[in-house]
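task queued by scheduler; priority normal; single chain, no ligands, no partner chains; default sampling; output format set to structure tokens
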Amino acid sequence: MKFLQINTVCGQGSTGSIAVEIAEYLKERGHECYIAYGQGTTSFPQALKISTKAENKVHAFLFSRFLGLQGYGSFLGTIKLINWIKREKPDLIHIHNLHGNYVSFPMLFKYLAKTNIPVVWTIHDCWAITGKCTHFTAAGCYKWQQKCGDCPQLFTSGAANWFFDNTAKMLRDKKRLFAQLPTLLIVTCSDWLKSEVLKSHLKNRYVQRIHNWIDANKFSPTDDPSIYGKYGLDSSKKILISVSANWEPQSSRLKDALEFAKILPEEYRLVIVGKYNGGQLPSNTHHISYVKGTEELSKLYSAALAFVGFSVEDTFGKVYAESMLCGTPCVVFNSTACPEVVGDCGYAVAPHDVVGMLNAVKEIDRRGKFSYSDRCIERVKTQFDYDTNIGQYFEVYTKALEEARALYSNETTIQY
């Protein structure tokens, strides 16, 4: 069979890596799999770049920021994608992220509604069920369950809108266009996200949770004392690590980390990993901007007493699972999918409760990190196993193909 995946990137970031891993899984089983993407570059051989850098910029500036219509531009790239689908006739299309300024989702869905191609859509964040927001928990906004408008996150979630609030229109369009697809099956990466999707306009679709997977060959307990000198760490202190792609100055994640640092006893040091462009950090907080490769990251995870997660908006929380594979327990906020990933391999405290977080860290310290380690590793290997979880996608594909076949069983020709 021939499969097509569509995503913002290919082989980069979490969703781009997932797309390639699914493609490789399918290829190993004798299927063809292509990935259409819109940004960056890739080494994946069966990739189709459908949008140019110039078109990405026009889409981002004119449609997303000026008009407040992210996902409505990139007409040329979308035409290129549709022509490819007409020519190659894939048996199934698997969509990932569409909100990357590289494709017109109205054009794409209007075309797909005219075909009998089954569609599987992995929803990695909340964009598909809201007017524009990729997350809504921190803002406490649940307008998307009825209708959007007067959006409190025009500048803070998803693409920043400078002038127009078109969130009501976008949600109406999503409801109308997504409903027109004859065969659409939804996958979410956590039970929490599934529960939110079932409150949305997609609630009548088939929705299955498939957890993201972690390659146990890439993360493992790794003792390497050289990291203290390499990253300027004090080996006499107990390390508490936190990893994020970005530590935005106005984010609740950074604000809570700084509040946590204020009450941190002298024996501990907070290490934050990821991009940070804010001001000077407290003396008990150490910043590492970039770590090259999973082996280096494993060393840092392994050196830590605990991972402290300051996010209140995670649809999965891959960094928690990575830390746990290295035998390091986690303390997270009891919000979204954070506690779902950690399970009994650490603690979940009330959102923004940094005092509760410190008490949990002290409990790990009292009991000893290694009393948690075996349980941490076992949980990730059983719950987030690569072969098991990626294999569930093929089961969803099979169901989608069977639904499409039943729907069009009376047709003698295939429409493209």
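post-processing summary
- Confidence is low (pLDDT under 50) at residues 411-416.
- The radius of gyration is 22 Å.
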